[in-house]
Amino acid sequence: MSIRPERVRILTPERPEPQGSGPVVCWVNRDRRLRDNWALLYAQEIAIARRVPLHVVFCLVPEFLGATLRQYDFMLRGLEEFERDCTSHNIAFTMLLGDPREQVPAYCAATTPSLLVTDFEPLRIKTQWVDAVCAATSVAVHQVDAHNVIPAWHCSPKLEFAAYTIRPKIKRLLPTFLDEFPAVERHPFPPAAMPQPTDWMHVRSTLRVDTSVAPITWLTPGEQQGRALLDAFTAHIERYQDRNDPTKPGQSNLSPYFHFGQLAPQRAALEVNRLARTGAEDCPVESYLEELIVRRELSDNFTFYNPNYDSFEGFAAWAQSSLNEHRDDPRQYVYTFEQWQQAVTHDELWNAAQRELLSTGKLHGYMRMYWAKKILEWSASPEEALAIGITLNDTHALDGRDPNGYVGVAWSIGGVHDRAWFERPVYGKIRYMNANGCAKKFDVKAYIRRYAESTLF
Ligand SMILES: Cc1cc2nc3c(=O)[nH]c(=O)nc-3n(C[C@H](O)[C@H](O)[C@H](O)COP(=O)(O)OP(=O)(O)OC[C@H]3O[C@@H](n4cnc5c(N)ncnc54)[C@H](O)[C@@H]3O)c2cc1C
Description:
This protein is an alpha/beta fold. The protein has helices at residues 38-50, 69-88, 100-111, 124-136, 152-155, 163-177, 200-205, 223-235, 255-259, 265-276, 285-305, 317-325, 337-341, 348-360, 365-377, 382-396, 403-414, 435-441, 444-450; strands at residues 8-10, 24-28, 54-60, 92-97, 115-119, 141-144. It folds into three domains: 5-147, Rossmann fold; 150-180 and 222-305, Serine Threonine Protein Phosphatase 5, Tetratricopeptide repeat (Alpha Horseshoe), CATH 1.25.40; 312-455, DNA Cyclobutane Dipyrimidine Photolyase, subunit A, domain 3. Strand 3 (54-60), helix 2 (69-88) and strand 4 form a beta-alpha-beta unit. It is globular. Bound molecules: flavin-adenine dinucleotide.
């Protein structure tokens, strides 16, 4: 087997082995790409060994945790490419519509697979879907972490305290797990008949989403474009030194592709790691790998092991008690959700950040911290601030509803993975940020000008 066994978990110990002569079905949830996909590679390897067809299914729910047309559009256009890629590789692609807890078991009943393979996403709803499918089918179900370089369950068996506790584990395992992907093959055992191509117009007509949040045009979704953007980024990786300056093009902008599973973080890590060998002094490889692997996989660890990852109760005890002590502190301003959303606070820097998010579907990483911390400062309670931060992020950001998003907001508002700082009103011991700090880092006026009111559609 060319896939490391640690990447795979058997979810049905009472029926661990593939059985019968049916196809291997790969139920894709999080990692929606043909190449560099450990779940698909694992499914194909077993299908080839058993000389059976390989099916890919994706189950589309008409609404999902507040996702809007902006995010559905990015996902669906990527899935169109994924379907074409599967078909050209003799892999049957089927789009199921509705509740996966019903649709996936029904698909299994109709196709009697020898094995169901699925990928891994630690969010509560995805875990519930997978558990329900395991309970409603009689097929062996294997889960593959196709998103993390080091499988989340193997990297650490427990909730990690901070980056400094998970980093040594990652560093120790990285030489083993940062391996090159084998190529996916044109499947040698095609199905008797390929499924009808998906009617994408019909698929779109089933959505029940907010269409007022428009798709973006400055990024093109899909596996090919994700790879092209990675190549463009690595060609100028020295720009990453400016990653904390939101007026400069320092960041990779790859998070939407990672989030929608159109690009493997491991592919980015492999390509960036190659640059380390050039040894150029201005090559910030280590900083990029720290964000891409340590910080990102720490977010998966948090959402995997902390059932309260999106609520106040998920904060560390020191942060909860400090925020509780400052619960009744007077706030200089208290804004409603609508005021936040419409970017009409008294703070032009905050408004500019919100307008960046509204108009581009992405908020610069440095500004994300300022943006969320000010929501804590000018909301009635930390619970309300957390809910507002998550909702705004999930509604407008292309990469929202991601472990990174829940952790990013919780880091800013609840000190998750951070340490206690000097105590001050409202924040308690949560790390503080202000506009003066931003002014020391970048040209605040230029940033405000860039996202002036006229940038909104
Ligand atoms: C309040 C707040 C909300 C956030 N919401 C999200 C979100 O919804 N989705 C999301 O993917 N990230 C989120 N982040 C983390 C981070 O800001 C983004 O991952 C990053 O800005 C994405 O842009 P990029 O791909 O150009 O980043 P780059 O700087 O080019 O980084 C490359 C990759 O490293 C990872 N990464 C970078 N910074 C972090 C970080 N702080 N924590 C974890 N992983 C990181 C991401 O996968 C990112 O794509 C949030 C951070 C904060 C403070």
